C-alpha cells in the first residue's frame, strides 16, 4: 500500500486502527510490514499495537488528547485531575491525561503525550458521558461529580481537610452536591462520606463568603 493510498483511507481520521486497512482482499502481514516501515520513516505515529495516527505535517486532524486516552486503553474514561481541569473545578493545567479503567493501571508515553490509567473496580465504573471536543472528535469524560469521587476514592487521606484545601477547588457551585452524595452512597466508603461532608461544608462557606461581598 502506497502512502498516498493510506492518506486517502485514513486522512480524515485523527486516529486509526490496523483493522481499518484489512477490509477486502489484502495480505494482513504485508499491511503490517508497511505500517512498520511508515512508522520507522516518521510518517506514522504508533500509539500502541494496532493504533496509529498520521504524523505532522501529513495529518489533517490533530488528535485530541482525550480521544487518544480513550483509545489507548479500553474500556476507559478521562477522569481525576484531567476531567476536573476540563470542567473548571481545579485551576491547574494537567500535563498528563488521567483516566479510569477496569483494566490494568499503567502509564503510556507516546508521541502525542503521556497518559496515566488508574484501576477501579467494575462496580464503580460509571459516571462518564460523551463530550464533544470539537472538530468531529468525541471522548468519554467523567462528570465533575464522578471525577471528584474517583479522585477522593483513589487518593489515600483524601478525607483530611488539609488535602481538600490543597486541591484548590473552584466553581463548586457547578458541582451537584446532592448527586455527589448519591454517588458516595453507591461506593459505600466511610472515607468518601467524610470527604464529601467536608466538601459540602467548604462549598457552603464559599457561597456564604461570596454572598457577603
Descriptive labels:
four-stranded mixed beta sheet, 8 helices, alpha+beta, elongated, 2 domains, 213 residues, three-stranded antiparallel beta sheet
What is the topology?
Elements: H1 3-10, E1 16-17, H2 28-40, E2 44-48, E3 51-54, H3 65-72, E4 76-78, H4 80-86, E5 97-101, E6 106-110, E7 113-119, E8 128-134, E9 137-142, H5 144-154, H6 161-166, H7 177-187, H8 190-212
Parallel strand pairs: 5-7
Antiparallel strand pairs: 1-3, 2-3, 4-5, 6-7, 8-9
Helix pairs in contact: 4-5, 5-7, 7-8
Structure write-up:
This protein is of the alpha+beta class. The protein has two domains: 3-54; 65-212, no CATH class. It is built from eight helices and nine strands. β6 and β7 (113-119) form a beta hairpin.
Judging from the principal axes of the Cα atoms, what is the shape?
elongated
Spatially, the strands of the biggest sheet line up as 4-5-7-6
Number of domains: 2
Query: Helical amount among residues, as a percent range?
Result: 40-55%
N/C terminus separation: 67 Å
Which residues sit in consecutive blocks of at least 5 with pLDDT less than 50? none
Question: How much of the polypeptide forms β-strand, as a percent range?
Answer: 15-25%
Main β-sheet, in a few words?
4 strands, mixed
Q: What string, H for helix and E for strand, traces the elements in order?
A: HEHEEHEHEEEEEHHHH
The number of helical runs is 8
